[in-house]
Design goal:
Elements: H1 8-46, H2 53-69, H3 90-105, H4 108-132
Keywords: Membrane, Transmembrane, Transmembrane helix
Transmembrane segments: 30-47
Length: 139
Amino acid sequence: MPESINSRTEVVRDTVVLQLKLIVDGLRDLALMPLCFFAALLGLILHREQPGRYLYRILSYGRISEKWIGLFDDADKDQMEPIKYEGKNFDEMIQKTQTAFESKYIDPEKKDLLLKKLNDALNDINGKMNTKKGPSEQA
């Protein structure tokens, strides 16, 4: 007799596979935390024109690994009415929180001065790092 949709065997298998995917996803995320931090730092120090080059490359690899892991692929087997979500995503929530925090606690002139000092410091580091390279190595 053929198995029905969402048979017990299928649910057990999908549950075990999900647990394995969660482990792989967690290990990937654990590795991405320091990699992204140091990639951003290295880009800020070494590249004035493209400071995000290393960070965004790692994010591209992360996106590919997310598709490969397919953590929620079996959600397609859900036979109930589709769940609709039209709320804000995490980035929008962070942006709103940042805007509210800055408007209440951050003086715009002090923020601009701090950002200028940060950019000047990074430009100084970029200049020092790039003088150590030969002209053909600078990017």
